[in-house]
Amino acid sequence: NAVSYPGVQLSWRRVISIAQNTPDPAAIDDKLEDEMYSSPTSRIQCMGRALQNMYTITSQDEGYIAFILTMVQELQYDCPVSMTFVKHIIDFSEIPSKETIRNTSIALLNNGVANCDNQKINQSIMWSMLARKFAGNLAEAMWQEEIATLLIQSLMDNSRSVKIFALLALESFALTGSIKKRILNHPLCIVTTLNQNLQECYSRLSESPAVASSPNLTLVSGLRRKYSGKRFYHGLIKRLKIRKTKKTNVVDPTTTTMACKIEPIDWSGLMQSQHCFQWSLNHVFNTPCLSPILLPKVYLNPRDCTSHCKLSENCLEIRNDTFYLESARATASVDSGVWYYEVLLLTNGVMQIGWGTKKCLFLQEEGCGVGDDPNGFAFDTYRSAVWAASEAIYPRSQRNSGQCKIGDVLGSLLDMDKGLCTFFINGQDLGLTIQFGHVVINFGERSWLYPPNTRHQPMCNSSNKIMDYAKQEQEEEHDWDGPLCTLCFSEPKDVILFPCHHDGFGRNCAKILEQW
Questions:
Q1: In the chain, where are the structural domains located?
Q2: Which CATH class is domain 303-465?
């Protein structure tokens, strides 16, 4: 009966249609719809009513379950708008009871024989959001051993996206310590499964693909040296302590005939999978520590980035699997001269890449990063626009040349002497200017894929080094939640919970928490 809860699907489609400024599926009269959307204020009011309707639905036990199951069918995981609003609704809905969250997870599991990859991915996304949001007692109420079986089996799926989102769900559940132990002790052995996936990724990446005529494939030849040769492959196998087997299903023999035709999306998928599996082994499902590697001259500072960034071991590859805007800065600064660096895009996600001062604010929950305050500017790969102080300053019009895509190389040339910055996509000058994201950074340690036609220095030659482990300075402390309870926002927050010492709650909400 939960699946047939009335109005869930239509209410969700209405939220998305208002957000994307498309025809309202709930509108009966087109003229009335035009009047409703005639001004930004009208759209904001319509969105407020649509979201309130969703909150009303999710406040009921059956409605909450129906909403989660509807998302398995309706969610467009590759659409940033859809992902943002489903996260928003889960965050701002009433906290469900243990019974409701348990029934929700059971319904997801019973609905789990998904008919297509999209439904498998959406199922993992729902578990991931709920497990991360309700880490602790509610996550334990949600947990079933069958969930681990389903998700670990998904790590061996043919679809790389299914693998990555299943791993993300397992990582979210592992935030609760008792569940992490159960995952590690599961008969399917997640560590072995991750190592097998790593072996496959490294084997495929070690095959050197030929260069095609497409400009987007030139990046493969530029970076293939990193992943070519038997020495590299066998060195990784030895370093990761992976046993090579004689099973033919580890590396499909048919892939050798397709190596010369590998496309950027396939190559990007291998890079993403390798990064995710390795990061999960190193930071979540821990294996014995690997020997430290020699870091390059300039790299992304692991102590000067927000909390959910997934950095590679050499700190030149970074990924964001959360629904917030995560940020990171390099370990070098410049104050004169002409400087250049490149970024290889491995996904189509929303990313802002540019330059900022040490005062640039990183506030992931508020969506504030480089280009969102006066202390920096950045190129938006999703909207092909340059942002500064939360305003698109180039191009001024909303119509642009389209989005950056997987395999594109974004270059940034900063001339401090002339006071200008130029951005390039695949070597093409975009003009004078001041998406889940995953990129590879090149500060000049490797050859440029698209060198600029002007005298410059690579960022790795900068002598102004920021302290390797210096946390970004904050001039003053800010209480962004204000003086009210962070749950109900209707009474002063004057209670501290023991023994965990969590604060920010009012007395009435603290009593409710105590009853759980």
A1: 1-94, 193-283, 303-465, 481-516
A2: mainly beta
